[in-house]
Amino acid sequence: MSRLFEVFHGGEVSRYHENDLPLWIGSGSDDHLQLDGVTEEVGCLGLADGHLFFQPSLTGTVCLHNGAHITQSVWVKGSDQIRIGEHLLEFHVQRDLVEIDVLPLGLQSRHTAGKSQERKENQGGLPRMSPPLKRRRGSRLLVGTGLFLAVVLTAITLFLVRGNVFTLDIEPVPETVKVSGVPPVVHLQGRYFAWPGQYALTASLEGYADLHQEITIAAGSQASFQFTLEKLPGSINVETVPFEGVQITIDGKYVGTGPLQAFSIGAGKHTINLHKQRYQELVESIDVEGMGRMQTFRFQLQPGWGTVEVITIPESVEVKNGTTLLGSTPGAVDVPAGEHTLTFVQSGYLPLQRQVTVSGGEITILEPVILQHEPAVIDLSSSPSGSSVTVDGVYRGQTPLQVEVAAGTEHTFVLIFPGYKQAKYQLVLEAGEEKQLHVPLEAETGVVFVEVVPADARLSINGGVAGAKSVGRFVLPAEKQHRFVFTRKGYQDKQVKVIPRSSYSQQIRVTMEPLASLQSGKPVARKKAGLKPLFQAPVEFQMGASRREPGRRANEQLRKVRLVRPVYVGAREVTNGEYRRFRPQHRSGAFARYSLDKDNQPVVNVSWEEAALYCNWLSRQEGIKPFYVQKNGRLVADNGTGYRLPSEAEWAYGARLSGRRQLDRYPWNGSFPPQVVVGNFADKSMLGVLNFTLADYDDGHPVTAPVGSFKADPGGFFDFGGNVAEWCHDFYSAVSGSLQTVEQDPMGPVRGTHRVVRGSSWRDGSVVELRFSYRSYGKGKKDDIGFRVARYLQ
């Protein structure tokens, strides 16, 4: 049954039920008890576990409970008084009726006035009357009830005094808390009193899972129990744009394809991952409230592709990204976002590539793409082989040769070989056509008349026997040097070199000298082959080029090198005459009617292996163990003191630092191009013949110059820059070292397929090749690669 609260204030009565509590006390118009002289809200009356309490608001107004100053809530019982400022609240409880008198200080309440009047009447000497029998029975019942209540109160007091105290700290504060057990638990002012034993705790709060917990109360303890209520899971809806087909992963676990409806998930932060083909992946963090609530999250995925628009000539060109066909022109193609290399392909045309950066959802317009017809290919051969070939005035190499030319255009092919008439062809080839063309060159001949004393001497021409005769008329290929060697027992051999001319005849008269004694005629190598010491004491320097150096290539990384072992290096490049002591039949050839084969010109058209074999031959001439040995059909280093090719590090030091205080960048002082003649490079005499030339430079030599034609460098060496590029000992590697370590006497990788080539040649005229740090490689013969020799001192 609900309690009734009656408030007597200023001659008026206000009635309230339990549902109206709490009753607010103050001066505001919305306060239930409005007190004069109070300027603020001072507290409230409420119920807790069926008990009435007063909670002060801790304002400036003083509150007293039964004369004691209070700052926190107190239980209120019958006959209690609460003083608030200049007002007094008296409480009277009769079963379910609670009366509250609100009085100014000094004024008696209704109940006090009645009792005072009764005392006055009794003092007037009124006779005492025995109550009737029925009244005495009622008195006895009242006395029994009082005794029972006294026993109960005594038990409760004993329980409170002798029982164990504990507190509950539950976060967040629950709506209901119940502690069940035998004997029952008493709850007073936030504390619980219980006998030792097991009790069942139950707490509940909307949006949280109910708490069910067994607690144990030990004898003589004052325990404090802490608990945290767990939020109930929530439900989420996930909506996306695009609406369907989006794969959803939450906290790394795939949960389905969107849209996602009423998905149960625990409260707190979660990571959601959204993925759909052709869209950019989206990763977001969501905060789920839980507590059984429904939340909706909306996400928009950005397109993972863009549109590329391009015009091509011709049309109907396929557009590929790698091997994936994206579409064809005209029109637009969809391309995944990011950086790509698009390839444009059509039969009969050369593929063309374009770099493009595509942003998702955006249109990228490319510059028009114009495809070039697929080139035609012509395989050229000639008799004799080795003819120089120019196409439309540009040198392309020597026969046999495969040349690519533009289709649909007339091209002029010219073949030149010393001693033969020039051959000229004009051809038009179709796209993709492959044509074979063999050109027999017509020899130009010259007449040479020979006379020799004694007349029976034996004659060989160019190493071959001339036949039965050694005198008379000889018809030979013109414009080409021929070597006449006369031999006879008892006479010193005689050698004559002749270049027959087609325009006139020539005559040779030879008189041989008798020998006092037979001589072997064995060629002897020049002592140390013109070697110079590379350095006097161990040296440390830096190879390569910095990224800021004009013309630098990617294979020129900076590296630190230390040379310790004493080494000698040839001051000059090996000449044709020196090399022919080793191989008399060698010919360095010619270029565009200019000879490369004179004795004092550097030897060219030799492979790395042939250069290494020359070094071994030179070692044997001086009785030194050869540096290179044959293993499994290949020449490998044996690390002795025999003649060898310089290492790349030795070449770099000799070219850039020997005899200098700092590294030289070019074979001359200053910047590019050279202002004075310092070496044999591609000068203006080769304009239109070679790809790059120095337009204002003339060194006087269209092809190779005699070795040592130019001033020696500060280290006393000739032609490190220009004339011919030079074979080095090392196998080639694009990555050759670093600045983190110092390499000592490096000889390059232990294996490889190509060898290092260093230095520029008569063919070079650009800033790339003319730098000393320029690195190239090869393994075959070329008409601008020669070599110089080196050897360790010990």
Any key phrases for this structure?
9% helix; seven-stranded mixed sheet; five-stranded mixed sheet; 794 residues; 5 helices
Helix count, DSSP H or I runs of 4 or more residues: 5
Radius of gyration: 57 Å
Approximately how much helix is present in the residues?
under 10%
Strand order, sheet with most strands: 2-1-12-11-10-7-8
Low-confidence stretches: 114-140, 516-528
* Head-to-tail CA distance between termini: 121 Å
The tally of strands reads 63
How much strand content do the residues show?
35-45%
Indicate the mean pLDDT.
Answer: 84
Apparent shape = elongated
Largest sheet: 7 strands, mixed
Structural class: mainly beta
Task: Describe what this molecule looks like in 3D.
This protein has 794 residues and is mainly beta. It is 9% helix and 40% strand. The chain has a seven-stranded mixed sheet, with no helix packed on it. Strands 4-3-5-6-9 form a five-stranded mixed sheet, with no helix packed on it. The longest helix is centred in the first third of the chain and has 30 residues, at 133-162. It is elongated. Residues 114-140 and 516-528 have low confidence and may be disordered.
